[in-house]
Amino acid sequence: MKKLKSFIIGTIIVLTFFWGITHFLINNQDEANCYLYHEFLSIHFNGMIIDKYIDQYEHLYPTIILRQSEMEKPYKFRIINEKSNLYNFLKVGDIISKDTNRNEVRIIRGNDTLYRVIDFGCNPFPQDIAK
Fold first, then answer.
1. Which region holds residue 101: left if phi is over 0, alpha if psi is between -120 and 50, else beta?
2. Sign of the Cα pseudo-torsion (11, 15, 21, 22, in order)
3. How far is CA 70 from the centre of its chain?
4. Helix or strand or coil: residue 9?
């Protein structure tokens, strides 16, 4: 009987510990996603995708290389924790642009102009939502 009681108490302690760790990690991930979302809002880009790859040397982040003009050095853009599948949607040769303080990306592919609202799983403030 004493062994059963010890086993139950031990199991409860272990489960509580794992629940606490999981809860902590999920909350930190939400916070990280919100940070990435606000970082994304602060950037501006306009250029042609000249390469895209999974960066083996940088945490396997999906990476896009943009040429914004012939005069400028190509711009490396990592898409980290983005939930709307932008990386898989984009193709080399697409022209993409994003204005500062917007969560919408304009994509020109051939004769088509497409718009994608980017989602990082963070609840944005109402003024952050693309109009």
1. left
2. positive
3. 28
4. helix
CA 125 from chain centre, in angstroms, equals 17
DSSP structure string for 86-123: HHHH--TT-EEEE-TT--EEEEEETTEEEEEE---S--
Burial group, residue 67, by CB count within 10 angstroms (0-12, 13-18, 19+): middle
pTM (whole model) above 0.85:
no
- CA 20 to CA 31: how far, in whole Å? 17
pLDDT digits (tens, 9 = 90+) for 63-78: 999 998 777 788 888 8
Q: String of b and e for 88-108 (b: at least 16 CB within 10 Å)?
A: eebeeebebbbeeebbebebe
> Left if phi > 0, otherwise alpha if psi is -120 to 50, otherwise beta: which for 91?
beta
Residues 6+ apart with CB under 8 A from 66: 45, 47, 48, 49, 50, 74, 75, 77, 96
DSSP string, 13-64: HHHHHHHHHHHHHHHHHHHHHHHHHHHHHH--EEEEEEEEEEETTTTTEEEE
